Amino acid sequence: MSASPAPLQIRRAQAGDADVIAAFNCAMAQETEGKRLLPEVVGRGVRRLLAEPALGFYLVAVAGGEVVAALMVTTEWSDWRDGRFWWLQSVYVRPAWRRRGVFRALYAHVTAAAAQEPDVCGFRLYVERGNRAAQATYRALGLHGTDYLLLEQLRPGVVYLQAD
């Protein structure tokens, strides 16, 4: 008889979680976009967000004392709605924990937390066009595509990728 899986605990990330979150972010970028991020830049960015709550927060899923998943929440002000969107970013679930309801648990925690914040008007996230498994997961939870196209321009001199 196999042991049952460790129960999942969802909590706000703490400073001691910075290294694993940074490693998750690097793994996610490599896996989904083929990008090799600079670990020192990612680590600095994770530690900064953890130290400056106005930037956002991370949630982690923990099982058996091990962090098995994480996501970051940042906000966007919507003057149209007089409220904040919570952007779900840097979503990563360890491969061995995928398809086991981990993201569903994280999302349930996010939505419950948002219900306590009267000005949160919704949730947004972006996902790679080719990441069909993630898209299916998000749609199953009620998220849907929008009519918006995401555009970006990095400030000249911003370096976040490893040179090949």
From TrEMBL:
PROSITE patterns named in the record: GNAT (PS51186)
Residue ranges constituting the N-acetyltransferase domain according to the UniProt record: 8-164
Keywords: Acyltransferase, Transferase
Pfam families, per database record: Acetyltransf_1 (PF00583)
Database matches in SUPFAM superfamilies: Acyl-CoA N-acyltransferases (Nat)
PANTHER family, per database record: ACETYLTRANSFERASE, AMINOALKYLPHOSPHONATE N-ACETYLTRANSFERASE-RELATED-RELATED
Record's protein name: GNAT family N-acetyltransferase
